[in-house]
Amino acid sequence: MIENKVVAMLLAGGQGSRLKALTRKVAKPAVPFGGKYRIIDFALSNAANSGISDIGILTQYKPYLLNTHIGIGSSWDFDRNVGGLRILPPFTSEDGGRWYTGTANAIYENIDFIDELNPQYVLILSGDHIYKMNYNDLLDYHKEKKADVTIAVLEVPWGEASRFGIINVDEDIRIVEFEEKPSKPKNNMASMGIYMFNWTELRKYLIKDNKDDQSDHDFGKNILPKMLEDKKKMYAWSFNGYWKDVGTVRSYWEANMDLLDDKNTLNLYDRDWRIYTRNKNLPPQYIQRGAIVNNSMVNEGCYIEGELNNSILFNEIVVEKGAVINNSVILPNCTIKSGAEINNAVVLEKTTVDGDQNIGELDDGNIYLVSNKKIPVE
């Protein structure tokens, strides 16, 4: 065994049904974000920047676009002769074919993969959060505490606490209680869904959990509470940076708009901690004379004649003269016709917004999800 070796297991099979049409054809981690990225790029880039050389990507729901995006991991320097990146979909065994039935089951079904790599630690990650984190800081804390598992946590607004697993700790930051999405949380210290385990301990609990027919085979509902019940050494590690669970259309829109805030701590332009992605070979953006572009991100292949204010445009978007876009996220290959006005919206890929369409109002408080078929409101 290589001392202190870490294998990362990235859970990327989520459907993300609350994102509505955004995940109709793709898994949540493959949803475009920030003008040129996909959501999974953040966890992959964090792992690459942290020096992790072995990572398994566990896929399930509509994986084609996600698998195409990841490829062999070359965009994140995971295309290696030894180790590197492996995509791990559900598979057929002597017991027959089956889907992963929970987050813990997904890891259990890949015990052989982890055993072959023979790590000392296993890092469990989610592929659907926006954040930048050095996982070595979490590992150092885990080793310092001589923990069996360390959970990354951060304080969330009290009004959102019931959406998360809530961690209660003692004076030594040792976990004394884990509440999965409580209706009346005791505090607002939420689990980020990032866990550092000692592999020998986690392996035992995965095997035991798999034999329990009453289990949901989930980390938050089953594995962590059982370890707590057995008085294993469980600690919380506090993260103070930017983190966003883009679980709804509104939170997805908010996270994109955060990128345009000059006070935002998620710095995409930090040369010391790049967010990598698979790039397309596209021509430069073209902003015609007379176009108005204020506080906006415009990606490659865009042709802008109209007006943009506080908006994010992905690649190959045409904004005709006389079109106005405010506080909106426009996904790739869209055309915004002359005379159209878009406010507070997320426009899906390959959508044409006709010149007679006036979507939303600047101060109406709604977020609009726009496609060629309909315009639902959140």
From TrEMBL:
E.C. number: 2.7.7.27
UniProt keyword terms in alphabetical order: ATP-binding, Carbohydrate metabolism, Glycogen biosynthesis, Glycogen metabolism, Nucleotide-binding, Nucleotidyltransferase, Transferase
Catalysis: reaction(s): alpha-D-glucose 1-phosphate + ATP + H(+) = ADP-alpha-D-glucose + diphosphate
Domain of life: Bacteria
HAMAP family in UniProt: GlgC (MF_00624)
Stored CDD domains: ADP_Glucose_PP
UniProt-annotated site: Could play a key role in the communication between the regulatory and the substrate sites, residues: Q60, W99
Region forming the signal peptide: none
Function: Involved in the biosynthesis of ADP-glucose, a building block required for the elongation reactions to produce glycogen. Catalyzes the reaction between ATP and alpha-D-glucose 1-phosphate (G1P) to produce pyrophosphate and ADP-Glc.
Residues that coordinate or bind alpha-D-glucose 1-phosphate: Y100, G165, E180, K181, S191
Record text on subunit structure and interactions: Homotetramer.
Alphabetized InterPro entries for the sequence: ADP-Glc_PPase (IPR011831), ADP_Glu_pyroP_CS (IPR005836), GlgC_bac (IPR023049), GlgDAde_trans (IPR011832), GlmU/GlgC-like_hexapep (IPR056818), NTP_transferase_dom (IPR005835), Nucleotide-diphossugar_trans (IPR029044), Trimer_LpxA-like_sf (IPR011004)
Top-level taxonomy: Bacteria, Bacillati, Bacillota, Tissierellia, Tissierellales
Full protein name: Glucose-1-phosphate adenylyltransferase
Residue ranges annotated for the Glucose-1-phosphate adenylyltransferase/Bifunctional protein GlmU-like C-terminal hexapeptide domain, each copy included: 289-370
PROSITE patterns: ADP_GLC_PYROPHOSPH_1, ADP_GLC_PYROPHOSPH_2
Biological process annotations from GO: glycogen biosynthetic process
A Pfam family it matches: Hexapep_GlmU
Assigned protein family: Belongs to the bacterial/plant glucose-1-phosphate adenylyltransferase family.
UniProt-listed SUPFAM superfamilies: Nucleotide-diphospho-sugar transferases, Trimeric LpxA-like enzymes
Molecular functions (GO terms): ATP binding; glucose-1-phosphate adenylyltransferase activity
Gene: glgC
Pathway entry: Glycan biosynthesis; glycogen biosynthesis
Enzyme class: transferase
Domain spans labelled Nucleotidyl transferase: 8-261
